[in-house]
Amino acid sequence: MQRPSFSIYDASAGSGKTYALVKEYLKIILVAKKNDAYRNILAITFTNKAVHEMKSRIVGSLSEFAKDEPSSKAVDLMQDLAVDTALSVIQIKTKSQQIIKHIIHNYAAFDISTIDKFTHKVIRAFAHDLGLPMTFEVTLDTENLLVEAVDAIIAQAGEDETLTKLLIDFTMEKTDDDKSWDISREILDTGRLVLNENNRNEITHFHDKSIADFVAIKAKLNEACKVLEKESVAFAEEALLLIEKNGIDSKSFSGAYFPKHLISIQEGKFNPKNKTYHEYDDIKINKTAKDRAIIENIIPELLQLVATIYKTFEKRDFYKAFLKNITPLSLLNTVSNELAKIQSEQNVLSISEFNAIIHREIQNQPAPFIYERLGERYRHFFIDEFQDTSEMQWQNLIPLIDNATSSEIDGEKGTLMIVGDPKQSIYRWRGGKAEQFIDLSKDQNPFNNPEKVLKHLDKNYRSYSQVIEFNNDFFKMLSNEFEHLDYKDLYANHSHQKLNDKKGGYVNISFIPKVEKTDVNPESLGEEEALDKTELYVLATLNTIQKVIREGFEYKDIVILTRKRSQGIAIATYLTEQQIPLLSSETLMIQNATEVRLIIHLLKYLKNSSDLESKANFLQYLAQNSQDKLPVHDFIAKGMSLFQETDFENWLMSFDVSLSFQNIRKKSLYEAVETIVAKFLSPALSRGKGDEAVNGVDKLGYMTGGNYSHLLIEKAKEKTKEPTSAEKILWMELKSKSLEEYKFRQQHLIDDFIVDFVCLSKKLIVEVDGDYHFSDEQIDLDENRTRTLKILGYKVIRFTNEQVIKSISEVLKEIKKELVSQEVFQDSISPVMAPFPSGRAGVGNAYVQYFLDIVLERDIRNQAGISDFLNFWDKNAEKFSIPSPEGTNAVRIMTIHKSKGLEFPVVIFPFAEEDYNRKPKDKLWLNAEEQDFGLPKVLIDNSSAVEGFGEEAAGVYNQKKQEELLDNINVLYVALTRAEEQLYVISNMNLSRKGEVPTNNMCTFFINYLESKNVFKADQIEYEFGKETKLSTNKKHVDTSKRIPLVAEILNPKNIKIAQREALMWGTHQQEAIEYGNIIHEILSFVKTKNDVDLAITKSIEDGLITFAQKEIVFNTIQEIVNHRELEICFAEGNEVWNEQTIIQKQGKTIKPDRMVLTKNNEVFLLDYKTGTHNSKYQLQLENYQSAIELMGYKVVKKALIYIGKEIDVVNL
Fold it and tell me: In the CATH scheme, what architecture does the domain 1069-1212 have?
């Protein structure tokens, strides 16, 4: 069966496009006479992951076909191929065996690649013709090239007189406009114009323009603006004179508005937006005007004058808009030349130049000549994700494809298969335009052979029926948002998909509760938690995850999609705190890894030994990871006091840290980093202090003989002694809700030691040391004990009594950090080990491995020293992250763009309220009168003011708006079509005070959809479609990947909020009583039973809530509450207690009762603390709490309000 020369597959989401591509590819190689037909096929896609998937599917299919017992899926595909090719299943099997053997031995000729890789291959073949060195390297880092170019241009200030004057003038213009004097950002934007192929055609008009030419054009524009303003004034005066000559009283015009309008123009006060007089009836005449007939007679002439004025202003405003951009535009050629110079000096070529080079230099070469250079001759082309192909990339491929499709070899023509979906075109900013696919799908055909077949893959094989039906209805409704007919048709007639056999599914649209900004006392708001918008989104996301897990899904079934990376980081940080396993390439930043930061701190110290911050950070790492002789702060303080480097090195030797900073400085960059890794991050170091620590049991002799028996006797005594105050405080915290899942044990026997506290599941031991632990003898004993416990697989961390009492929060933070670290260690199947170039074993840490790769590349390519590398790292650190491993049972977080082409059982889409009409950074190119200024195109800001520049400009502006709307709806389409079984959209109503739906916001789409289904209510925040029951079966999966811990977002000091409490220092007795009551309220949140009062008071002193002098009065007040005859039962032991626990109600509102006590009989005691006078609203609030709790299945048997003041007043309800 002859394949069509040119076939276009319009493949909506989930419609099996990869299956179609693989099937068509297999048909070609199976029917070919030779076994190496794959050599003549070029398949192009856009990501390495897509390349891998396509290669795997093709090779995997051939491998299955070749088996004696292929899988059922392979059998189905073989039967389909047998029908299409007229081959028997046996023939397909035999041919597959031959082809797969050939591919294995000639894999390099199996040409499936990204379009950038293919373009690179073409440029390499023509490097000599293009004047490129054969050894040039490709750089993806165009931004850094631009920064270097801009820095070089600014550095020329003072040398080049013309350039200097331009830069100074530009700086003055910015300061005159009350903007930053820093002009580098605008020049960078100009550079991005040069590198963005969307601007290539326009920029060609400026190639022959010098800075002097632009200066002259600017002067002409300024002069033209003045002339136009004078003309406008003259036309206004002419109109006023016409009124005056005809003896018309200005009061004869309604409100005298029309004469005032002319006067404002005459006085130069006219606002161009006030163009209100266009038609005859726009000029209003008073009913009592005696000169009505005269006015009516001259209205046509007046309107003509006003129209001329408006046209003049349009031109003036157009010129002014161009003037705002002409200075950075003057630097186009300067930036372009500097970029070329830098690339030549560094022997690199920016990937953004690829398409332009081919378009300019190679495209017009005869196809046979290009093939000859490539060493290949392609007969069949496959282009995947065509909607992402830029116009220039497509134009560059056309000559090769046209040659193949219009010629025959052995009676067979070449073919082209394009697969894409314009609804998933989301890369316009890099040249990918949906319009290109739309045009090809209609009448456009760039090839000499007119044969073209369009196929629609309109059946969704991915999703369950409810998800498909929702998307069908939703996006058909959104087609009405478009004015552009092609865009409207795309969603009205090409978004509907047929159902598959998977019935059911679930769609949930919810809105976060409205965030009210108020200065009212929180007491009056029922003390409901005031969360900001981001917190509400992350909380809603967590609740959705927990709900989905309860339904039977696994974490790996869930993906969270966000539009912005910052939103993903906010969610990841919160979910990590909640112990939700996560995978996210956006958040696995190398720069945040502790080990990498250690290396950077040491490099900074090596660069400058006076860098005290880096030295302190280095010491902190050592204190926490490589020594246990001194408390952390003492260790750091001692190290910081040693200013002579030799003294510092000698002191480190006492902790078995042997290194010479001076020797490291003499090494190459890579060798220096390798030395740091070997010294501080080697596997041996992580287990102890070298081989002696691992094998030192017999050498130290404490497993036999006196030391062992001495330790046993000492610990036997310790077992029977009363716990210290520090141990009591820590034990209370270890039992608290924040750590209860880890289940610590106190005074527990491990091997031959009794440890203070241990979490057996995580193998973490916490020791609290008294003063006697600082004796020389005890230090040796503790070191030996720690080594033994490490050999047994335990991590030991130690704190002093003083640290626990004075800094409990820091102690807990350290314990939590170690618990997470131990959790990651236990989850790892095997360490990541890789040989160093020098042959030594590498560190078992993926972050360090990736970092070493970066260092090595930088060292080889740039011969970089430490200083150069640190500069590079400061600018680029955020770009490097570790790819997330596949198959791990963890929730994935990714941007919508990264999710393209993927599918997940459950999709959660929070922050669904994007402003799709926000002011874009893009500029607009408009036609100009070349004869006036020598420029056929001008660059202006994209703003609504463009509509006032004339009909043509308004058309360009409105087209741009429609494109932006299409791009935003396309992004939404990608997000909502990733779901297989369940889809959760979390948005925000953003209703005005009058209940009006916002315009230009994504949330409006969801509200409109709900209204179209007649279900929307302003007070309802959750809507369900389908049943939330899990229908799919869990696939058994063996996780063999190493788990890499999520590094949470680094705390920005600017984001630290310091709350100041002026406790007991108010000016009036009433204020003092209220504040005192609030303090008691806060301390009671630490109290679960009456036995916790002492520790709660200690904690409040440590936290600065009260002073030591206030301890007694506060203690007495709390004792009065917990021992009150009406309340004693609420503070008894044996119950489950929730203090200050937030409850989210079904309507989305949150409540936070002060104290809930759950008895063993599932009965609840409900308490709320109040200050000030009695108020009936508090009773209503408590009743609302009761209703919410009883809806959860509990019975409230007691509820009371406790008024805290000079006396305690209990009101039972």
Answer: Alpha-Beta Complex (3.90)
Domain boundaries, the chain: 6-61+109-133+350-457, 154-346, 506-585+887-1026, 590-681+845-866, 707-827, 1069-1212
Q: How far out from the chain centre does Cα 662 lie?
A: 41
Tokens standing for residue 470: 């929702």
Q: By C-alpha distance, which of 115, 121, 53 is closest to 381? A: 115
Structure tokens at 430: 């890099």
Third-level CATH fold of 707-827: Endonuclease; Chain A (3.40.960)
Question: Residue 1079 CB: number of other CB atoms within 10 A?
Answer: 21
The response to whether 807 counts as a known ligand-binding position is: no
Return the closest-CA partner of residue 1079 out of 1167, 1171, 993, 987.
1171
pLDDT in tens, 789-820: 776 678 899 988 888 888 888 888 888 878 76
List the beta strands (DSSP E) in 568-644: 582-583
Mean pLDDT of the chain: 82
Q: What is the dihedral of CA 81, 82, 88, 93, to 10 degrees?
A: 20
Q: Token pair of 831, please?
A: 């360490």
CA separation for the pair 1210, 1204 (Å, rounded): 9
* CATH code, 6-61+109-133+350-457: 3.40.50.300
Note whether 622 and 777 are within 8 A (CB): no
Just give the CATH number of 506-585+887-1026: 3.40.50
1109 assigned binding-site residue: no
Annotated binding residue at 15? Answer: yes
Query: Cβ contacts of residue 1160 below 8 Å, gap of 6+?
Result: 1134, 1135
**Model confidence at 713: pLDDT above 60:** no
Annotated binding residue 11: yes
CB 12 within 8 A of CB 494: yes
Which among 450, 446, 498 is positioned nearest to 472, based on CA atoms? Answer: 498
Contact 1181, 1154 (CB under 8 A): no
Reported as type and span, the H/E element at residue 534 is helix 533-550
Mean pLDDT of 259-265: 90
The annotation status of 556 as a binding-site residue, yes or no, is no
The domains spanning 6-61+109-133+350-457 and 506-585+887-1026 adopt the same CATH topology: yes
Angstrom distances, CA of residue 389 to CA of 381, 464, 545, 854, 870: 14, 31, 36, 30, 37
**Strands 795-800 and 764-769, bridge-based pairing:** parallel
Q: Which two three-digit tokens encode residue 382?
A: 């496959």
Q: 866 and 855 in contact (C-beta within 8 Å)?
A: no
The tokens for 389 are 């192909």
DSSP, collapsed to helix, strand or coil, labels residue 1105 as coil
Q: Is 13 annotated as a binding residue?
A: yes
User: How far apart, in whole angstroms, are the C-alpha atoms of residue 765 and residue 795?
Assistant: 6
934: region left, alpha or beta (phi > 0 left; psi from -120 to 50 alpha): left
Helix intervals (H) in 656-807? 661-665, 669-680, 683-687, 690-700, 706-720, 725-734, 776-791, 801-806
Rounded CA separation 376/370 (Å):
9
Rounded CA-CA distance 1138/907 in Å is 32
Residue 953 annotated in ligand binding: no
The answer on whether 12 is annotated among ligand-binding residues is: yes
- On the question of pLDDT at 1103 being above 80, the answer is no
- What's the pLDDT score for residue 1041? 46
Residue 697's pLDDT band (cuts 50, 70, 90): very low
> What's the pLDDT band for 964 if we cut at 50, 70, 90?
very high
pLDDT at 839 over 70: no
Range among 601-605, 738-742, 823-827 rated most confident: 601-605
Over residues 730-775, the pLDDT tens digits come to: 888 887 756 666 778 777 767 667 788 888 777 889 999 876 666 7
In the predicted model, is pLDDT for residue 911 greater than 90? yes
Least confident among 607-621, 745-759, 1157-1171: 745-759
